[in-house]
């Protein structure tokens, strides 16, 4: 019996890989802490002045979205919590020198 091969279109492969990576990243996020931060931001925004709750929620969401986007370029993501230091591998050092 001949084995059937299944070829995926590059777009499908990319979508699958994006989904797998997204789920892996989601596993690293403390959603309870993120929710507490969002609630604190909303409360603080509402205390500052005359603003609708929906607007405060949108502003807080935008602030968190920008902060999460900045994480991709933040060198602290390379810190090794066991040793307390970062950039202790060849790849990390290359990334640090590229970002400088």
Kindly describe this structure.
There is one protein chain. By secondary structure, this protein is mostly helical. The protein has one domain. The protein contains 4 helices and no strands. Helix 2 (31-48) crosses helix 3. The longest helix has 18 residues, at 31-48. The radius of gyration is 20 Å and the shape is extended. The protein starts with 9 loop residues before the first helix and ends with a helix. The mean pLDDT is 84.
Short description:
With 100 residues, the chain is mainly alpha-helical. The chain has one domain. It is built from 4 helices and no strands.
Low-confidence stretches: none
Individual helix count: 4
The share of residues in helices is 55-70%
Q: Shape from CA axes?
A: extended
Key terms for this structure?
100 residues
SSE topology sketch:
Layout: H1 10-26, H2 31-48, H3 53-70, H4 90-99
Helix pairs in contact: 2-3
């Amino acid at each position: 019996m001949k084995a059937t091969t299944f070829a995926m279109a590059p777009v499908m492969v990319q979508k699958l890989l994006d989904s797998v990576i997204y789920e892996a990243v989601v596993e690293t996020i403390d959603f309870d802490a993120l929710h507490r931060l969002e609630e604190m931001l909303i409360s603080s925004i509402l205390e500052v002045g005359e603003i609708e709750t929906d607007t405060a929620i949108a502003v807080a969401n935008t602030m968190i979205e920008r902060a999460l986007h900045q994480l991709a370029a933040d060198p602290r993501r390379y810190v090794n919590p066991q040793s307390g230091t970062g950039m202790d591998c060849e790849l990390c050092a290359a990334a640090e020198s590229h970002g400088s």
